[in-house]
Amino acid sequence: MSPAILVTGGAGYVGSHTVMTLLERSDNSEYEIVVVDNLTNAYRSDGEKKPEPLKRIEEMTGKNIHFYDIDIRDKEGLNRIFSSHNIECVIHFAALKAVGESVEKPLEYYQANISGTCTLFEAMRKYGVYKLVYSSSCTVYGEPEKLPLDEAHPTGRGLTSPYGKSKYFCEEIMKDLCRSDPKWMIISLRYFNPVGAHKSGRIGEDPSGLPNNLMPFISQVAVGRLKELLVFGNDYPTIDGTGVRDYIHVQDLAEGHVKAIKLFKQTEFSGFHAVNLGTGTGYSVLQMISAFEKASGKKIPYKIVARRAGDIAANYADVSLAHRLLGWRATRTLDDMCRDTWAWQRANPAGFRS
């Protein structure tokens, strides 16, 4: 069997863009791509076998993607997949991901994100697969003690949401795994705030229900799906009182995962490595609104409402380790992020249901 990369949650936003990047890169041509997704955050048309993002990726690349509609907590389902493919490494995206929702539904988040990850690790160990790229989050840092955030910043302190706690707990499990067996090679990529869409405009962020993240909320207002943007708080100690975040183009983020996989091939190392993926620059909510209005030519009406549970005032990354270890840095600008988001939303006003 040909070697394969297993991508959990590969039909979701960051997962699908990473699958696209893997297939676009000729130096990954020897790998089959196997995607596992329970479609919590992905759309599939009635009667179709594959979710719409993967269908479009296959059309654009002319390559096949093996897809399995299972939950990563399905132990027997994972065993069938590992026994059917020659999986060499895993990119693990599958998780519930909304900070605010996690405060309301902590048990669901711990079940999906922690129990599911442990079940995946058991299957990997059973089939001798020890290389993992993990989709982590800057929320593991909690309330920043200093900015910019580097990987030496303490994690697990003052965490403000079950989502952030679930990512932190999973990282601690990975560290214990690596201490227990030197065969494990784990790169935990701590994302800041993914935005944007593929340059083709054919795949992008398509949240189910009301968006939990800023950029799809803005773009849905711009295209007329939503009446106005809700800005959660304007009394933070920031440049204009609104929350400041480090936004990174999803294609830059996807390329970071490809660099991590190349590191497995080029370098003999073991153990757990955490790496920030961001731009190193923070933008406020109002600055993001202004940039999107410029890119789209649309006025974005908004309303200031109360702060959202679990949110912090500001965070942005120190990304020097990513450059040193992975040879990676973000190259796309805020204008690129807004332009590509608008191109996706304008062409797909109802998302993948368009």
UniProtKB/TrEMBL annotation:
Alphabetized InterPro entries for the sequence: NAD(P)-bd_dom, NAD(P)-bd_dom_sf, UDP_G4E
Membrane-crossing residue ranges in chain numbering: none
GO biological process annotation, one example: galactose catabolic process via UDP-galactose, Leloir pathway
Enzyme Commission number(s) of this protein: 5.1.3.2
Names of the cofactor(s): NAD(+)
Domain of life, per lineage: Eukaryota
Catalysed conversion reaction: UDP-N-acetyl-alpha-D-glucosamine = UDP-N-acetyl-alpha-D-galactosamine; UDP-alpha-D-glucose = UDP-alpha-D-galactose
UniProt pathway: Carbohydrate metabolism; galactose metabolism
Cellular component GO terms held in the UniProt record: cytosol
Keyword Cytoplasm: no
Domain NAD(P)-binding, chain residue ranges per copy: 6-341
Keywords assigned by UniProt, alphabetized: Carbohydrate metabolism, Galactose metabolism, Isomerase, NAD
UniProt GO molecular function: UDP-glucose 4-epimerase activity; UDP-N-acetylglucosamine 4-epimerase activity
Entry-linked NCBIfam families: galE (TIGR01179), PRK10675.1 (NF007956)
Subunit structure: Homodimer.
Family: Belongs to the NAD(P)-dependent epimerase/dehydratase family.
Function summary: Catalyzes two distinct but analogous reactions: the reversible epimerization of UDP-glucose to UDP-galactose and the reversible epimerization of UDP-N-acetylglucosamine to UDP-N-acetylgalactosamine. The reaction with UDP-Gal plays a critical role in the Leloir pathway of galactose catabolism in which galactose is converted to the glycolytic intermediate glucose 6-phosphate. It contributes to the catabolism of dietary galactose and enables the endogenous biosynthesis of both UDP-Gal and UDP-GalNAc when exogenous sources are limited.
Protein name: UDP-glucose 4-epimerase
